[in-house]
Design a protein that fits this description.
The structure is a single chain. The protein has about 325 residues and is an alpha/beta fold. Helix content is about 40%, strand content about 15%. It has 12 helices and 12 strands. Helix 5 links the parallel strand 8 and strand 9. The radius of gyration is 18 Å and the shape is globular.
């Protein structure tokens, strides 16, 4: 593993200590996902046992590299289960790993690669109560951050007083509460969340959003959140594989030129661009192999003092249309 030292920071004003690079388990907890090149990375054995071994291997490698933030969700297949068995086996000190998870989607793919539906969304109070109990039964006191999974204006979850009060109660019990956002209206959802008030209190302290060199529209809203003391986590920094060497297109050709000039690789340039944003606390790696993770870790060094990155951003609606068209592999 690279000898690059991954710095730690406080996650906004929450008091949680996190590493600048985190490990996301979205692609490690279930057999199918939308990242490019999954067949090459995982092969044909997608059994529960095989993916659990791989998840443990990746968590070991992440810990060895200095990564101390791990991101899971109820909808990531058996990600929380795999994380629990790893925690039970390794028993790392509580202050050496920070765990976040999410509620609002349920995995329904029955461990089938060709499932018609892999996950379903339900942001009701009943789902919140059921899924926080499920997450806590697996992760116990290791669970420190709990987030709404893909809050949108259309779902009206940010206007649901019952849900907001339940989240506020969880916060008063010691959990850090946040939300994740997705889609072309991320900025609007973030700014709406910043104004939420239930019983005179905003329950949210953290936001997790997509930001990458192809989709940078949420940057100003994330800066606003950071200025108010919120923690900021960035997901999909490599655009589900579209910002790696395995992708094609003019944007990748431009990144290859930049990578060659910096004597590094496309993924390092793309990740370093996100890490260099002053409002970003944690940038998630979606690596599923130790080789990928080792490469991703190198981005930490390249991010320091760099702010001149290729301008390859797509129109926001085009980016999200392309993401929606990605197939589960």
């Amino acid at each position: 593993m690279s000898d690059t030292r991954i710095p730690t920071v406080r996650l906004g004003s929450t008091g949680l200590i996190v590493s600048r690079l985190g490990l996301g388990l979205a692609a490690l907890g279930r057999p199918a996902y939308i990242n490019l090149g999954r067949e090459h990375d995982l092969g044909f054995d997608r059994s529960v046992a095989a993916l659990e071994r791989r998840c443990h291997e990746m968590l070991d490698a992440a810990r060895a590299a200095g990564i101390r933030y791990v991101d899971a969700a109820r909808s990531y297949g058996m990600a929380e289960n795999f994380l629990r068995t790893w925690l039970n086996a390794r028993n790392p000190p509580e202050d050496s790993i920070t765990v976040g998870s999410k509620w609002g989607y349920a995995y329904v793919g029955s461990w089938q690669l060709d499932a018609t539906v892999h996950e379903v969304k339900d942001l009701s109070i009943d789902t919140l109560r059921r899924q926080i109990a499920e997450s806590r039964s697996l992760l116990g006191d290791r669970l420190r951050l709990y987030q709404i999974h893909s809050a949108t204006l259309e779902s009206r979850v940010l206007d649901n007083v019952a849900v907001l009060r339940e989240l506020l109660q969880l916060r008063s019990g010691g959990l850090i509460i946040g939300l994740t956002v997705t889609g072309p209206n991320q900025s609007d959802v973030i700014r709406r969340a910043l104004r939420v008030s239930v019983d005179g209190v905003n329950p949210f302290q953290v936001v997790q959003a997509t930001w990458n060199l192809l989709e940078s529209s949420a940057g100003a809203a994330l800066a606003d959140a950071k200025a108010l003391g919120w923690g900021v986590i960035v997901k999909e920094a490599l655009a589900n594989g579209r910002l790696t060497d395995r992708a094609e297109g003019a944007h990748v050709r431009e990144l290859r030129k930049e990578a060659a000039a910096r004597r590094t690789t496309v993924d390092v340039v793309a990740l370093a661009a996100v890490l260099s944003q002053p409002w970003a606390d944690v940038v998630l790696s979606g690596a599923v192999t130790t080789v990928q993770l080792e490469s991703n870790v190198k981005a930490v060094g390249f991010a320091r003092g760099n702010d001149d990155w290729p301008d390859i951003a797509e129109p926001t609606t085009d980016y999200w249309a392309r993401r929606s068209a990605l197939t589960w592999q």
